[in-house]
Every structure is written in structure tokens, then in C-alpha cells.
Amino acid sequence: MELELTDRKILNILQSDFPIAKHPFLEIANITGIKEDEAIDRILRMKSGKIIRQISAIFDSHNIGYKSTLAAFKVADKSADSAAEIINSHSGVSHNYLRNHKYNIWFTITLPSEYSLEQEIKKLSEKSGAEDYLILPTLKLYKIGVNFDMTGADDASSFRFFSHEDFKKDSEIKISEFEKACIRELQKDIEITHEPFKNMSDVLGISQEKLLETVKNFISERKMRRFACVLYHQKAGFSYNLMGIWKTNNEEADKNGKIMSSVKEVSHCYLRPVYPGRWEYNIFTMIHAKSKEEAWNIMDKISSLTGLMDFGALESTKEFKKVRVKYYV
């Protein structure tokens, strides 16, 4: 699908500055110098063309009472597909990939705080026949937030990434029944209409003004990272992604994590635990690029900036599952 400059400008706004307003597409139209109906038509066309995956609230799982982790299973190659099917059947698994490593199945699992991630992962390992597995929770989040600059003009430079400083203490996390009901609605893909929040507010039995006020409160309280669109990154021109893995000593982990997160092509940067003799890499970076060569150039840039020479990359060779986490359903 061919994207015009106006389409690209709209995509930047949808990713980083979606208007929390009764008529958000009118505001987007005003910013881009077109009519509201044209803005709606362009967005609908980009949805049908598989450029836009979804437009909805992006919540922070920790700050709304959930917990999550990355896990890696070592499964016989011939059993990978059947093992992935078992893993995918778990409602808490949102992303699951085959990667080029002896730990070949990598997935994320998110659960309400009263559940045990360790027990659920152990059950999945037994059901799937995993020979070994790693549980790799976030020890420190340096950066998270996928935001593709679609114009190449740094239109998205005001985008604010989430980091560890945004996490609430467990004792501070309180979600009311009203907030849970709002979360259930706001995590849904919005309708591309003149008043996209109307049906949501009707379901909740509140005014649009009350719902929009709640969205703004969620954002200010860091319960919601942002309200935004998620793109099919391959169709949007960023066809290659790479999970960088880096070995750094504990004393320099924060310094190196902050350097890595300053690289704009890095969308995720985490400090994770090591398992001596089994897994020695403690910083993970997700890189989105337009080609394999570009991705590896970014890896080399990070190596040069940090001075780290012990690193590698995990490439996705198959996508088993990629869905949004559904909270309080």
C-alpha cells in the first residue's frame, strides 16, 4: 500500500499525540490541513491495508495490578510447533516467537498479581515438553515504547517513553471497580467515526466527558502509557527487528542501559537476570529497522557507544502469537 505524506503525518500523530477529545479525528484533520471526513477515510484505508493494527489504550500492566515476564524454552526443533500451540493456548501469553538459539521459543506472559508466574511457566514447560527454560523478569526498565517516525522529519521527537521511574510501588496500586470497567472498554480497538468514544461511554453508562477525563487521569497516574495506534511494522516499512542481548557487569548496567535507551531505533531496553553457565546476557534491546543491515549497524553503534563487545542477537524466524493483553476480562 502506497502511503502519501499526509498519511504518514497522520500515523505519527496517531502513535504519539492522539487527541483525547470528543472529536479526535477532527483535531487530527486540523493539524494536517484536511477535512475530518478525509482523515477518517485515510485512517480506515490504512486499517484495511494492514498498516494500522489497532487504536486503543496502552496500559502499563504493573501499574494496573498485573505482573509479567519474558520466558525462554528449550524445545526440540521437531516439537517447536506443537509446543508453541500449547503455550499459545494460555490466555496470559501475548507474544510468542521462534528464535535462532538453543532456547528457541520466547514468549511473554502477563497475569493478575495474585497468580504465580513461576508456577504457570512450570506447567507450560511440562505440558510442552521443554528440556529447559529461563524465566527472565524485568529487573529494571530503561525504555519501552514503539514509535515509528513515518516522515523522517523527526515529527515524533516529542514522544515520551516509559521507564522504571514510572513504576508505582506495589502498595500504591489501587484499581477501583469503575476503573476496571473503563479498562475493559478502553483496551478495545476504537471505532473510526466522528465520535469514537461514544459507544464506549454508552456501555459504561457515563458521559463522553467523564470517560475522556478518566483517560487523562489514567495517563497522569501512569496507569496508561498512552492512547495510540499500533502499526503492522512490516507493512509500515520497518520490516526487520532484532532482539539484542548484551553482557555487562552490574556496576555498569545502569550506565549502559541508559546509553542504549538513548538510541532512537531501540524501542525496548531491559535489565534481566542471568543464570550462570546457562544464560549470561543481562541487558536486552529490541531494535526495529528497515533492513537486516540497518539493524546490525545499530547494534554496532550501541557496541561502540558502550564499549561492550560481548553481545549477540536473537532473530525471529517465526511468529507464533502476537495479541494485545486483555485486562480484567
TrEMBL record:
Pathway: Porphyrin-containing compound metabolism. It catalyses: siroheme + 2 H(+) = 12,18-didecarboxysiroheme + 2 CO2. Its EC number is 4.1.1.111. Belongs to the Ahb/Nir family. It comes from Candidatus Acidulodesulfobacterium acidiphilum. Keywords: Lyase. Residues 7-53, 179-225 form the Siroheme decarboxylase NirL-like HTH domain. This is siroheme decarboxylase. Residues 64-143, 235-321 form the Siroheme decarboxylase AsnC-like ligand binding domain. SUPFAM superfamilies: Winged helix' DNA-binding domain. One of its GO terms (molecular function) is lyase activity. Pfam families: AsnC_trans_reg2, NirdL-like_HTH.
